[in-house]
Amino acid sequence: MFHDPDGPARLSTTAAHALADCLGIDVSDGRVLLYDAVDPDALDRLFRPRHDGRARHGSSLSFTVRDHYVTITSDGEIVIEPPVHR
Fold first, then answer.
1. Phi-psi region of 24 (alpha: psi -120 to 50; beta: other; left: phi over 0)
2. Residue ranges with strand state E in 1-86
3. What is the pLDDT along the chain (86 residues), one digit of tens a residue?
4. For residue 62, what are the β-bridge partners?
5. pTM, full prediction
6. How far is it, in rounded angstroms, from Cα 34 to Cα 7?
């Protein structure tokens, strides 16, 4: 999934919706708690444009939510990998 930085949604909102989709639950029911793994406001600030307006490139943040490995890149890509069962 990709986040559109020019769209109306914040990056943290897009990430929460992507997680809900992967987990097969409704994002509004409160079971997807992004803030249990990462501060949503900090996530939004981390990838917003620099103070001079230049976009941030080449960075990423990874964390886990309910055993799903989440990676968000500065380009807006959101990758969610399900847990590996052995």
1. left
2. 60-65, 68-73, 78-81
3. 999 988 999 999 999 999 989 988 888 877 667 878 999 999 999 988 888 988 888 899 999 988 999 999 999 999 999 988 76
4. 71
5. 0.86
6. 20
